[in-house]
Write a structure and sequence with these properties.
This protein is mainly alpha-helical and about 575 residues long. It folds into three domains: about 105-345, no CATH class; about 355-455, no CATH class; about 460-570, no CATH class. It has 23 helices and seven strands. It has a five-stranded mixed β-sheet. Strands 1-2 form a two-stranded antiparallel sheet. The longest helix is centred in the middle third of the chain and has 32 residues, at about 350-380. The chain starts with 12 loop residues before the first helix and ends in a 10-residue tail after the last helix.
Length: about 575
C-alpha cells in the first residue's frame, strides 16, 4: 500500500502551480535585491573586486592580480564572470555593481539546481520547498549576495550533487552534470569542491546498488566533462609561471587545508560545534527530521543515499580542515535543503502552528524595527543613539528614500501580511512563513537601510580624501611588509586601486624603497603611541572611516621627495 511517507508531495496540480509561482517570486526578490547600490565592502568584496578590476584593465585572465601582486588563493572563474559583465554594462551600472551581478547569476543558478534536485529526490512539488529552504538558511542570507567566489562554488557543488543523484537514472546526463559541477567548483575555489564530489562518487561504489555498469559509464563521462575545467587554466598558469602554479596548487590547496602555510583564520577546536547550528538553520534540523520520517526511503532510494553521503563527507572535510569560517558552509547548504524538503509536509500539526507563529512574531517585530528606525531617522535626521548602533553605524545620515523604493517596501510588507493570512494554520503551507519572512526582512533592510550601512562600510570617502591629499607629483606609493600591524591589507589595496587609482608597492622598511610616499594602515591597539618613521619621513595625511574606531591610514612623504619633486612624466597617476 502506498503511504504518505512514499509520496510526501501529494499536491494537486493547482496547488503545485500556486506554490511554484510563489516560490519564483520569492526567489527573484531574494536573489536580485541587494546586488547593486553599494560600494565593495570589507573584506571579501573589496579584494575580490580588486581582482576583477585588474582583469578588466589589463586583459590578463590567467594570473589574478590585486593591484601589482599575483593573487593565487583562488582560481578565476568567478572573476572571469564578473570581469565580463563590467565592460558589457559600462555606462549603465558602476563597475562594482556590474561585477556583483555575477553573484546574482550564480545564486539564481543555485536555486534552480536546488529545485531540480528536490524534484529528483522527492518528486513533483518538492522543488519549491528545496528552493525556499535554501534561500531561508541563515548562511545564505548572510553571505549569498556578496561579491565573492564562494557563490560560484555553491553553484558548482549544487550542479555536481544533482549530477550524482541522477547518475543511476540517466547515467549520461548525471555524468555530464557531475563532471561539469566538479569543474565549476574547481575553477571557483580549487580542490575542495571536486574533492568532496570525487570522494563521494568513489565511496558510493561500496554500496551494491551503485556497483553497476551504468554508474561506471557515468563516472567516465564525468571525468571527460570535468577535464577542460580542471586542465586548461592550470596548464595556462604553469606555462605562464611555474612558481605561481606551485604557489596556487600546493600552498593554497593542501597547505591551507592541512595547515602547512599561514593562510586563512585557524579553526578553533569547537568552531563548527558553535557555528553549525545557526549557519545551517533551518535546513539541517529539517534534514534530520526528513531522514527520520522518510527512513524507509534511505534503504531503497540510492539517489537520496548519495546526497546524504555527500553532505556527511563534506561536513567531515570541513571539520578536520585547518582553517574555518562560517562562509565555508555555503556549498553544503543545497544538499541539506534538498533532503529537508522531504520532511516539510510531514511536520506535526503542533510544530506547524508553532513555527508559523514564531516566524510571524519574529519577522513582524524585526520588520517593525526596520520601519521604525527609518521613520525615526527621517523625522529627526539622526539614528537612535543606542550602543549597538553607535559602535557600528553613523548616527547622522540622510534617511530619505525615493517614492519607488518606499512603494516597493510597502508592497512587500503588505504582501507578506496577506501571505501569512492565506497560509495560517492549520494549512500545510504554514512553514512558508519562515522563507517569506526572510525575503521580507532582506528587502526592507536593502531598500530602507543599505545606504546607511554603506556609509559605515564603504571606503569611498576615506580613499577619495587620500587621493586629494596626494602630491601633484610623485613616483609611487609603498607600504611596509612588516610589521603586519602597519601593512595595508588586501581589501584596502584593492579599494585604493579602484577609488584613488593607486597601485601599492611593497617595502621591507622605509629605507628599502624607491617610492617617495609611504602609506600605513595603523592598528591603534598595537600603536597607541603613534607611528614615527624617522627624520626622513614627514606625515602628510591621516584618515579613517567614520564608523571605524580601530584602524586609521597614515600617509608619509620622504623629505627628499618634498624638496625635489619628480617630474610630471614620472608621476604615479
Amino acid at each position: 500500500m502506498t503511504t504518505c511517507e512514499d509520496r510526501p508531495f501529494d499536491l494537486t496540480p493547482e496547488a503545485r502551480r500556486r506554490l511554484g509561482w510563489l516560490t519564483l517570486v520569492l526567489a527573484l526578490l531574494f536573489s536580485l535585491t541587494g546586488l547593486t547600490g553599494h560600494d565593495p565592502w570589507k573584506q571579501d568584496e573589496a579584494y575580490s573586486f580588486g581582482l576583477v578590476l585588474n582583469m578588466v584593465e589589463t586583459g590578463d585572465w590567467v594570473v589574478p592580480r590585486l593591484a601589482n601582486d599575483p593573487f593565487m588563493e583562488k582560481p578565476p572563474v568567478y572573476y572571469w564572470t564578473a570581469a565580463a559583465l563590467v565592460p558589457w554594462l559600462d555606462g549603465t551600472l558602476p563597475a562594482h555593481d556590474a561585477a556583483r551581478l555575477a553573484t546574482g547569476f550564480y545564486l539564481l543558478l543555485t536555486l534552480s539546481l536546488a529545485a531540480w534536485l528536490g524534484t529528483v529526490l522527492w518528486g513533483a512539488g518538492a522543488g519549491s520547498p528545496a528552493v525556499l529552504l535554501t534561500l531561508g538558511t541563515l548562511v545564505v542570507v548572510q553571505h549569498g549576495h556578496y561579491l565573492i567566489t564562494d557563490s560560484a562554488l555553491m553553484a558548482g557543488m549544487a550542479l555536481g550533487t544533482l549530477g550524482l543523484a541522477l547518475c543511476r537514472q540517466r547515467w549520461w546526463l548525471g555524468g555530464l552534470l557531475l563532471g561539469t559541477g566538479a569543474g565549476l567548483a574547481f575553477l571557483a575555489k580549487g580542490l575542495l569542491g571536486p574533492g568532496i564530489l570525487g570522494v563521494t562518487a568513489l565511496a558510493l561504489l561500496a554500496i551494491p546498488a551503485w556497483r553497476s555498469r551504468a554508474y561506471w559509464r557515468a563516472l567516465l563521462i564525468a571525468a571527460l566533462a570535468a577535464a577542460p575545467w580542471v586542465l586548461i587554466w592550470p596548464i595556462g598558469l604553469y606555462l605562464r609561471d611555474p612558481a605561481l602554479f606551485e604557489l596556487w596548487f600546493w600552498d593554497n590547496n593542501f597547505g591551507r587545508y592541512l595547515g602547512g602555510v599561514d593562510l586563512g583564520p585557524p579553526a578553533d577546536a569547537d568552531f563548527w560545534l558553535r557555528t553549525f547550528p545557526w549557519v545551517t538553520f533551518p535546513a539541517a534540523p529539517l534534514a534530520f527530521w526528513a531522514c527520520w520520517v522518510q527512513r524507509r526511503r534511505l534503504r531503497s532510494d540510492p539517489a537520496l543515499v548519495a546526497v546524504l553521503l555527500l553532505a556527511i563527507i563534506g561536513w567531515a572535510v570541513l571539520l578536520v580542515a585547518h582553517t574555518a569560517r562560517d562562509l565555508y558552509a555555503l556549498p553544503l547548504i543545497v544538499p541539506l535543503a534538498a533532503v529537508a524538503a522531504g520532511g516539510v509536509t510531514q511536520l506535526p500539526l503542533w510544530f506547524g502552528r508553532a513555527s508559523f507563529w514564531c516566524s510571524a512574531l519574529l519577522f513582524g517585530l524585526l520588520a517593525l524595527l526596520l520601519w521604525g528606525l527609518w521613520l525615526f531617522g527621517t523625522v529627526t535626521g539622526t539614528a537612535p543613539d543606542w550602543p549597538v548602533i553607535a559602535r557600528n553605524l553613523p548616527l547622522v545620515h540622510d534617511f530619505s528614500r525615493s517614492g519607488v523604493v518606499l512603494g516597493g517596501a510597502l508592497v512587500v510588507t503588505l504582501g507578506w501580511g496577506l501571505l501569512l493570512w492565506r497560509i495560517r494554520p492549520p494549512r500545510r503551507a504554514a512553514p512558508l512563513a519562515w522563507p517569506a519572512g526572510v525575503v521580507l526582512l532582506w528587502c526592507l533592510l536593502v531598500w530602507l537601510h543599505f545606504p546607511w550601512i554603506d556609509q559605515a562600510k564603504s571606503y569611498r570617502a576615506v580613499m577619495l580624501d587620500l587621493k586629494a591629499a596626494l602630491p601633484a607629483q610623485f613616483n609611487c606609493v609603498a607600504d611596509l611588509v612588516e610589521p603586519q600591524s602597519l601593512r595595508l591589507r588586501e581589501s584596502e589595496r584593492g579599494l585604493l586601486h579602484y577609488f584613488a587609482g593607486v597601485k601599492i608597492q611593497h617595502a621591507a622598511s622605509p629605507e628599502q624603497t624607491d617610492c617617495d610616499l609611504l602609506l600605513l594602515e595603523v592598528q591603534r591597539r598595537d600603536h597607541r603611541e603613534g607611528v614615527s618613521l624617522g627624520a626622513d619621513w614627514v606625515p602628510l595625511w591621516q584618515g579613517q572611516r567614520a564608523a571605524d574606531q580601530r584602524d586609521r591610514f597614515q600617509l608619509f612623504q620622504r623629505r627628499a621627495s618634498a624638496a625635489a619633486p619628480v617630474p610630471a612624466s614620472a608621476a604615479g597617476l
